[in-house]
Specification:
Elements (H helix, E strand, L loop, with lengths): L5 H5 L3 H19 L3 H55 L1
Helix pairs in contact: 2-3
């Protein structure tokens, strides 16, 4: 069984996390009994279960990128205004 990342697990709701842990336990049991045919089905269920958390993680990344872009634009504007003030003062 493949685990999802810690970041994705951190974004699972309580119900999703409980279901995830139960599925992983079932998958481990099946692996220990070499029932890999059934493990694939459980893994597919896990993959479906974590999709909403993956989307939440992507959205957090997009939000971080937006905030970084806003910061850089504000910094560029402040630098430009400082340069303009310096030029005005020199004249």
């Amino acid at each position: 069984m493949r685990h999802c990342s810690v970041q994705v697990r951190g974004l699972l709701t309580r119900d999703e996390l409980d279901r995830y842990n139960a599925l992983m336990e079932v998958g481990s049991f099946l692996e220990s009994h070499t029932r890999y045919d059934l493990v694939a089905t459980v893994q597919a269920e896990v993959d479906l279960l974590i999709q909403p958390a993956i989307e939440r993680l992507k959205e957090k990344g997009r939000e971080r990128d937006r905030k970084t872009q806003e910061y850089l634009e504000e910094k560029r504007r402040a630098d430009w205004e400082a340069q303009m003030r310096t030029l005005d003062e020199e004249e």
